[in-house]
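Researcher: Let's do a round of design. I'm pasting the structure tokens now; please hold your answer until I've finished.
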């Protein structure tokens, strides 16, 4: 019996993107359904009634919510291909820690800098916070090619969707290439993977989304 795999998604979402990359790395075929978060579908509300957010993986009619949970689920269910999480318990816990760090920090601080600040002072403070987080990640990366050491793994998958924001950050005054050169080099290395490059919205399109949200929030809409 064929498996029914559906992803409720939003192309501009970095959290949806990491799930798309996970599927691509595993070679899993799935049906993707784009959501309009200003007019959420009945299916989304039914499958994720608590948070009503994307992404949601629906596997044989059963929902799995939250991007990091979905990524681990993908790795466990489609285990025949390369692994996204390490098998060693300590290394797996280490991976979960950094996935949580990225999830708790990068999006919130990038969006605060990009479109939630109402003054020059607030934007400068948000910029410093974002750079600080990337510096922490640069320290963790060290001289390794990937966060998974020699292999591209779940930490890399979780962070790389934010590469598409770099163009926007530069446009808005954060010189990411100067501030965080190791992260930029790592990002460009990851972007050479077809599983990554074909799963992400373009930096230019991301900038259009950022400007739209910035204008909407700053105008009070």
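Researcher: That's everything. Go ahead.
Model: Designed sequence:
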């Amino acid at each position: 019996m064929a498996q029914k795999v559906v992803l409720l998604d939003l192309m501009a979402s970095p959290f949806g993107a990491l799930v798309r990359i996970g599927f691509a790395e595993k070679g899993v075929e799935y049906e993707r359904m784009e959501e309009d978060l200003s007019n959420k579908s009945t299916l989304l509300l039914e499958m994720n009634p608590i948070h009503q957010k994307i992404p949601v993986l629906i596997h044989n009619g059963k929902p799995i919510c939250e991007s990091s949970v979905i990524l681990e689920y993908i790795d466990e269910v489609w285990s025949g291909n390369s692994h996204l999480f390490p098998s060693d318990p300590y290394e797996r816990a280490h991976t979960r820690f950094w996935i949580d760090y990225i999830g708790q920090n990068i999006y919130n601080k990038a969006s605060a800098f990009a479109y939630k600040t109402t003054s020059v002072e607030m934007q400068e403070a948000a910029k410093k916070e974002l750079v600080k987080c990337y510096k922490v990640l640069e320290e963790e990366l060290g001289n390794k090619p990937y966060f998974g050491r020699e292999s591209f793994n779940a930490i890399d998958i979780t962070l790389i969707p934010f590469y598409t924001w770099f163009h926007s950050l530069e446009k808005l005054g954060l010189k990411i290439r100067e501030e965080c050169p190791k992260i930029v080099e790592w990002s460009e290395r990851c972007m050479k993977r077809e599983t990554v490059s074909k799963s992400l919205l373009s930096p230019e399109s991301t900038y259009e989304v950022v400007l739209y949200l910035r204008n909407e929030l700053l105008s009070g809409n």
